[in-house]
Amino acid sequence: MAVSNDAAVNRLVTAHADKDNTTANDHAKSKGIAILEGLLGRESAPVIPIRERHDKVVPAEKPDWKPAWVKKRALRHTVIGASFLGLVALPATLASLYMAFIAADQYHSSASFAVRSIEGGVSGDILGMFTQASGGSTVSDSYILMDYILSERMVAAADRKFNLEDVYATRGLDYFYGIGSELPIEDKLEYWRDMVSVSFDHASGIMQVTVKAFDPTQSQAIAQFIVDQSDNLVNSLSLAARNDVLRAAQDEVLAGEARLSKARTALRDYRDKSQEISPEEGAKLAVQLIGALEQQLTQLNADLATAKSQMSEDTPRIRVLKTRIESLEQQLAVERQRLGTGERKAVAKGPDAPDVAGRIAQFEELETEREFAERAYTAALGSLEKARIEANNRQRYLALFIEPTLSQLAQYPSRLLNVLLVALGLLFAWGIGVMSYYNIRDRA
């Protein structure tokens, strides 16, 4: 009986111990499940009550299982998301709404032309005239024309004709693409370069001008004005180049003409004073006269010798012959002195010189100067004509082969492209900022 009682007590103790072990195991299992569900993010999972050793059920408390780095990471992600919304998504949305509902339509007008030269002959067909390679001089003129179209001078001329503040005034709420009022020329130039674009093909020498405006007829009118102003500039450059080429030749012609006029005046003055056309002709007459006097003197000397052989010295015939011989000798000496022969103490030169040789020397100097001046003048005229032909061959002109067009459909502003560029730009800037933050954090 006692043994039976002891066995019953042992069974009760063993059952109670098994019950306590089961309760402890259930408590440990419930706690593990709760921690695992918390790690998996199931914060709203039901809490399994844990039984204590005295069969008393108490609710399980929610443990604070999140570490500090998890909380910081969640805050950082929240800030990055908010910055993306504020710096990328919202501005891109506003830009899309502005382009879709506020930005005014813009129409364009295009014109194509080229600066050409007639040097090297005329092309066989009209296509070759526009596709032939440009020379270095026309390329430089094309770049000059590009700078002129986008210069303050062009803007000032266009403003005087069209009043740019009225043409590009703000349409509705589109203040971004409109121009302001009472702007300085520098701001107008900046706006002009946004609305007018110039492209140049170096290979073909073709230049294309595109003008944008809020009205198609205004864009066409401005494009036509640019073409007209460009044509005037090319013509003025061509005229200036032609004048530069001709200026030197014209100066030579003027100098040669003045020299020839001076030489002819000097020769005319000489003839007026000398009373003879050419001293060479006078010299020929003087030689003939001296020859005739010498012939007469020879004849008289022969007659005198004959008379002396027949008559005495005191006869009248011999005295007459001697007198005539003396007169002829004196006249012959004078004529020879006028001709320039014989010895003289001084020789006078000029139209008033008593000797023919001095007059001939002066005349030859004047005649040589006149002939040289005539040849120089003739050569200068030839150079001038050659320079004129060369200048005409190098003349520039504006070859317009696409007149300013009239647009029927607004193609500007490029709404989708602008929105895409804005979004990509904002995204790129935001990405750089985020990457810079992480780079600094990792290094710190």
Describe the structure.
The chain starts with a helix and ends with a helix. It has twelve helices and six strands. Strand 4 and strand 5 form a beta hairpin. The longest helix has 59 residues. It has 444 residues and is α+β, with helices and mostly antiparallel strands. The chain has three domains: 57 residues; 190 residues, Bacterial polysaccharide co-polymerase-like (2-Layer Sandwich), CATH 3.30.1890; 135 residues. The protein is 68% helix and 8% strand. Strands 4-5-3-6 form a four-stranded antiparallel beta sheet. Strands 1-2 form a two-stranded antiparallel sheet. Helix 4 packs across helix 8 and helix 8 packs antiparallel against helix 11.
Short description:
This protein is α+β, with helices and mostly antiparallel strands and 444 residues long. It contains twelve helices and six strands.
Topology of helices and strands:
Blueprint: H1 2-39, E1 50-51, E2 57-58, H2 68-101, E3 107-117, H3 126-131, H4 136-149, H5 152-162, H6 164-167, H7 185-195, E4 196-200, E5 206-213, H8 216-274, H9 279-310, H10 316-339, H11 356-393, E6 396-402, H12 415-443
Antiparallel strand pairs: 1-2, 3-5, 3-6, 4-5
Helix pairs in contact: 2-12, 4-8, 8-11, 9-10, 9-11
